[in-house]
Each structure stands twice: as C-alpha cells, then as structure tokens.
Sequence to fold (564 residues):
Amino acid sequence: MVAVTISACLMVVLTTRAVIAGASCTSRPVLVNVAVSTDIAPAIQAVARTFNAQNHVADGRCVEVQVNEVDSAVVAGEVDGQAPVRSMAGFDAWIPDSSLWLDVVRSYPVGAQVAQPTGIEVARSPLMIVTSPSVEARTSVLAAPVGWNLLLPSSAGGIPASLHVGVDLPDPANSAVGLSSIIEVNRQLGAGVTARQAFTKFVYSIEPTAEFNSPTSLASFVSSTGAPFNSDSVTVSSEQAVLAYDRANPGQPLVARYPAGTSRVFGSPELDYPYVLTTSGSVEIQAASEFGAALREGYAASTVRYYGFRSANGQPDVMPASTGLAAQPLQLATQPTATEAATNLQSWKALGLGTRELFLIDVSSAMRMLDGNGTQTLEQELTATASIGVGLFPEDSVVGMWQVAEGLGSGKGYQELVPMGPISAPVGLLSRSEQMSQVAMNLQAGTEHEALNDAILAAYKSMTATYATQDVNALVVLTAGVDDKRHDLPLSTLVSKLQKLFNPNRSIEIVVIMFGTQGDFAGLNEIAKATDGVAYEISNPAEVGAIFIKGMTHRICSQGCTPP
Fold:
C-alpha cells in the first residue's frame, strides 16, 4: 500500500516545530521547554500563548513556555535512554498522547529517575475501530457492535475470511493507539501457553502500519482501500482524529465504532495526555508546575474540546450529528496496570525481531523409512514440510541450508546446500526462498548413516561465529533422529560442548523437528534444551504451520513460563 508506506516513513521523522508565544515580560525569562504529542500540539500551543501573556513568575522571573511538537515514541526513547536522539534538545516537561509511554519509560532505571508524573491529565480521546465507507458498503464489517476480537484471525473469532478484510494496526512500537490495541487483544486472549500462541498468530496476521491519528494519515488509509490497491482493511484510530477527518470530508465520513465487550476490561481505551516533568532544576520545576496549574484550568479544558478532544473529565465538545458518534454507547476500558504496557511492548518487539536460521537437513538412509502412518517415507514427509516451511518466513529473514549424512563434504558428514543470506535475495537466477524450495523438493535420501551430533556442533559453531545481534538466531534440525553412534560424537559430549558455547546474551537456540518414531527424541530434546531451545515430533507436514507458531511464541516465553 503506497500511501500507507509513505505515511509510515513520515511517522518516524522527528518534528520539532517550536512555538514561543509573545509575552510582555521579557527580562531574563525562565524558559519551559515542553515536548508535546503532535496531535494535541496545536491545542497546547493555544494554551501556552494565553499563559505567556499572563506574566506568570517563578523565582522572581517571568515564565515563558515553548511548545515543541514531537512524536511521543521518540521522546520516550530519549527519556528512558533506550533510543536517544543526538539532535534533540532537553525538555523540562512532556505531554505524550498516553500514560502508556510513561509506564514504558519508568520501567527503565533512567526513565524512572527522569520522568516524574504530576497527576495532571490534559485531555482524553477514546479509541475506535475504523474503516472507509467503501469497505463498509462492500463488507458490512462494522455493521454490528464490535469488540477487540475483530482484530484477531478469523479462526480465533475475527473477521470472517470470506470477507477478505485485513487489519492495518498502527505499529505498537511507535504508537500508543497500537500499543493500547495489543493490550486489549491480550486481555481478550487471556494467559497461558494457548493464549501466547494465539497472540503470536495475531501478530503475524496483521499489517503493522503508520499511525492513522490525523486527518491526513486517515486519508491515506481511506485511499489505500480503493483502486488501484483493492485492499479492504480496518484500523484503529482516536475519536479526535475521526472527528477531524469527518470535518474535512463531510460528504464521506468514516465508519467508526467504539469497541466494547462483556466487561470494562474489554472496552475502549483512551489516550489521556498526561503532563510529566522531566527536569531536575528547581527553578524549571517551579516554572513547569505553573504551566501545569494552567493546564488544569477551564480555559485549557475548553481549548482541547475545541480541537476535538475530550477534556480531562471526559466531557466532549458538541459532536456533529452526521457522524453518529454521540448516539453510540461508549464503554471505557479499565486502565492498564503499570506493567501491561512494558510487557506487551516487549512481546511485540520480540515477535518483530528479524529471523536468522540455518536448516540442517537429514538425508541419511534413515529417511527412507516409512512414517508409520501410511506409505509415505520420512524423506517425503520432510520434503513436504520443508516446502511449506520456507513459505512461512517473513521477507526479511536470513536463512541457509545444510544437508547431513556420512560421506558428504569430503567426509565431514555435512555439506552446504544454500549459503546463508536474505530469503528474498537472488542466488543465481532464483531467489533464496525459491532455491530452498527447489532443493527441498529434490531432496533424496542416500544409503549412508548419519553422524548428526558432529554436524550439529559444526553448524552451531558456524552460527556462533556469524551471530547477528538484531535478529533471533536459531539452528533448525530436521531429522529422523537415528544417529550412527559408532562414528559420531557422544550425546553427553555434544550437550556439554553446547552448554559451554551457549551465551544467553547472544542466544542461538536449537530447534529440532523429528520425523517418524525410530529416532532418539529424548536425546534430541536434551540437545535442544542445552541451548534453551525446543524439540518437536511431527507426523504430518501440515503440522509445520503450528510448529512455526510455537517456535515464534518461544520468543515471548519469559523466565518461568511454560515453553509452547
């Protein structure tokens, strides 16, 4: 979607349009730099102009407020020290679009020290599930009351697959709207292994996009749902953005619904625009507190309502009757706990990490055995599994493939089939994914046995030597698990060596998929666990999709949870 892509590029650009309103008091003023979320910045600029004209005083000096329009996620990365921006000047106060950013920032030691909440909320804006009039006309996807389950895959109660409607979710790493949405989805799914797998499916079923939280960005969303893109989608935006879009496009208002559920837990979250102090200077704190007091006053409340927000007490301005929003019931969601934002964001980022995997393919004589379910051999089962599996990986994955059987590679017992590299990059005349698919389709088991442990150790050392810090690194072993113990490294020795090589700070997991029932699954499981990995038994190639989800879910299995 071209429009969405352009919008995504614009979203991450730091904008600092500073507004210093004229003040009659100009003798050595105390300057209060306030970083303000881009959507509410015009309203806060209006409040600051009035404030500056009133000649407020701190430490005997006049106070001037400078409003800096900055994306909330960018400021969060600066304040908590996780993604500092060299060109960003220091701020004395901050108005992000959501307290979720404050929760995330204060989950880090630096952020907990710098970001000091004041208890002041400037405005509110409930979230809505949105689509364009043309999509609604074709699908009636928002015709009935909606809940957060609408964003889930159809198999989990989401939009019926027959409607061919996708979900464009603002990237939670950059958007409080997106982060609020995944919190509600996780609440819907619950806790435990099954819930984590369902959340993983959800993440890989949606399209992370730019934030659709302004009339311009919503216009790009609407345009992407028509010709020539023909991509029917729903997204999530704020009430204020929807109202602003509808005012700009009175003939074609958006179709927007407040999500609701069986209890307030599953209702509509609000952007709440907290006022946060970020300075340690006593004079600056006094001056910033003066502006905080002004943000509590009636003028500030009426100003934010004028710009389409609700005031801090939840009171909206008069809504146009044409939008139909005033007639909709609004079930506000319960406030997230202090840890929900950070935990959900960590899970999202873990699932969004790049993938770098080396596949170790068993082509020994053991793969000629029948799978025990019919006339299919393990070789045929592996071929079908590998062919399906290649198509599951994201386009930014880095992959490679070795084959394993005694006699290969000048007697080493293993041999490279496809060199490591981006899955979409060309290897000769084919892309790497196409080449791997062809290799998988033409795999032929030989007559040799397999020294699997030697091959695993060599492959693990290779992955260690070429470790990629920005990716999830893994060695995937597809095998019958029938090892030639006479000519191979003993299991105990391999496990000991892997335990010494494994570095939890540079983790490389071994994931084993064993075909058939003749292999030593207990031993393979021991090998996997030496690297905090997992082992699976497979009897049907169709199971690879579920195993892929389980493997990805393992990324978000925090310490103490049961691996999927």
